[in-house]
Fold this protein.
Amino acid sequence: MDKIELGLKENWKQFTLLVIVNAFVGGMVGLERSILPQIAEKEFHIVAKTIILSFIVVFGVVKAATNYFTGTFANYLGRKKLLTIGWLIGIPVPIILMLAPSWNWIIAANVLLGINQGLTWSTTVVMKIDLVGEKNRGLAMGLNEFAGYGALALVGFSTGWVASQYGLRPYPFYIGIAIALAGFLTSWLFIKDTGHHSIKEGLQSVVPRLTNIFKDTTWKNPNLGSVTQAGLINNLNDGMVWGLFPILFAAKGFTLGEIGIITATYPGVWSISQIYTGKMADHYAKKTLLFWGMLIQGIALLMFIVAVSFTQFIVLSVILGIGTALVYPTFLAAIAENTHPADRPKSIGTFRLWRDLGYAIGAILTGVISDVFNINASILLIGALTIISSFIILYRMIPLMAITSNNNVK
């Protein structure tokens, strides 16, 4: 135990490998980001938005449940084992998407994708926090989310471009086969377990243990509860963006290539910005970053209702990406800061349970509203809920400060 060191610099090799693995994880979701709603409409002739968004509902529910059990079993089964199992389950996903003869097969693929994402993404988050210890958590999470969502954006753009040149299937999904195999082999052959790092930090931690991890993380603890509700709302609006925006842009006459650019801009900006916003979470009040991030997202979403041109949608996607970047690494850094290392995997799992249920809730809610009214009504509701979430943070969360290296609090 004495030989184990905590810190980003001390564990940079394993940390870098985990960043690469999380890029593969994000790339798996990017396979669907630009083209799956188009496949539903053009190949399976599905018109109802609720049916089109069913793949997001299934993905969100399965991923959310898997997140929770990943957090629960991380301390018992080991991080590396969960990560490797997650990749084994993900390998069939692009093959099924490529060959699916009906929409039910697409749904089945998203069950596997949800399990893959819950096991792999949650595990890489826990492992990076294990390695870095108390210092540079925000930066660690920024790099983690940068890799995941950067790859999501890149693969989303790539599949959109390939689809515009060669058709919706099968060629875009060859990318996914390569990603799944690379993720599995890297995790199996090169990643080392980080459980001992967590044990060492636990021996030094002064953070009190939680009385009931699930209840405290869900709502009872004012800081953890504020973060959790914001995470749910954040993914609620992301679920809407994922499922409805490609349809919205197609209705406005944009080509598949243009849709790919717009839909990739949001996660692309979100990804790159997290390198900076993650570091900000180590030096500035997390409450402030979370409030402004959710507020910016809400306002940007409302502006999508009145936008008409390609340029306007690109600008709004950039603003939405910046708002999301302010909150995403800060969510995880705040959870880590408020939990004892022994409680942390389960607390992160609980947070990610509720956060990713936002995908399912958002898809169901926006699908029904879009079918009954229109897409703009869905955007209006979700934008308003995102703004309300920012004010819950403002009025409920106790300010969390990170002390800089010169001991000044900003």
